[in-house]
């Protein structure tokens, strides 16, 4: 009986496909923005382990060099360059470097984001909104617009935007939980009338916009065999979100909302991104996958 089960497992085509998934992106070229740390680096690593040549970038050369060395130590094909996605000339340089070094592009993971503000939304300024929307939304679209013609030349491709659970529900943080928060954000707490803050509201709006951008682009680009999807992480243990997960009181508040009672790891998001770029997700487009540990953000 057991021998027949094992014999079936050995010849099962699904099992066979799973064993080959580690090379499922062989020959593909993937640009990952803001990819020298956190979710971006984890995405580059997951794509590279599946055979893709990854192009990593950030604003500082030292960070690029460190990420390239790490990925190479895992036998991943990698090219690195500096890029501030908020600058048109840097976006063009990132694409041109990819074309020169790799011959084309098949995958774009748009991960770059900024959040210079923490506090109630009505206290934010126009400068804050301009900065957040420019980098988090406009640059994501313009980078997509740059790469799409080159994906078309290759017969198709994949775009993945990195949004946030905050795109569904702005995060509220109680003042009592913010006593030890990053000093640059403390002024937002001092005069707050409410016992809780809509702490990331302008950032949340930008992440909501990425959900809409995903839905708008997916049907338009499907005719060129380009799939467009999105991931919405919850609280993940990255440097970018350290002011949240580094505060025990805030973590305790978040854990009340979690089914899996811990903070997520970047690799747990990177793997989902790699899946969305693979043939295993060939019938998925226009979707957002939430990676939140079970936070109830939608039906």
From TrEMBL:
The keyword Transmembrane helix does not apply. InterPro entries: NAD(P)-bd_dom_sf, Sc_DH/Rdtase_CS, SDR_fam. Gene3D superfamilies: NAD(P)-binding Rossmann-like Domain. Keywords: Oxidoreductase. SUPFAM superfamilies: NAD(P)-binding Rossmann-fold domains. GO terms for molecular function: carbonyl reductase (NADPH) activity. Signal peptide: none annotated. Belongs to the short-chain dehydrogenases/reductases (SDR) family. PANTHER family: DEHYDROGENASE/REDUCTASE (SDR FAMILY) MEMBER 4 (PTHR43943), DEHYDROGENASE_REDUCTASE 4 (PTHR43943:SF2). This is Dehydrogenase/reductase (SDR family) member 4. It comes from Gasterosteus aculeatus aculeatus.
